[in-house]
């Protein structure tokens, strides 16, 4: 690799679907926050 700025020499070995990655990340984070919120509500009702 003599010319490191030549984009033809940098092959994308693993093409990714950025939209799907973002959607999955959003879904996982939403699910985690939903579980945390539900646990907090249950704990609050148990305490009171």
UniProtKB/TrEMBL annotation:
InterPro entries named among the record's database cross-references: YqzM
The keyword Transmembrane belongs to this UniProt entry's keyword annotation: yes
Positions of transmembrane segments: 23-47
Top-level taxonomic group: Bacteria
Pfam families, alphabetized: YqzM (PF14141)
Keywords of the record: Membrane, Transmembrane, Transmembrane helix
Annotated protein name in UniProt: YqzM family protein
Organism field: Cohnella abietis
């Amino acid at each position: 690799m003599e010319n490191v700025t030549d984009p033809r020499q940098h092959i994308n070995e693993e093409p990714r679907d950025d939209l799907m990655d973002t959607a999955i990340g959003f879904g996982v984070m939403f699910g985690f926050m939903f579980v945390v919120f539900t646990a907090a509500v249950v704990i609050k009702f148990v305490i009171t």
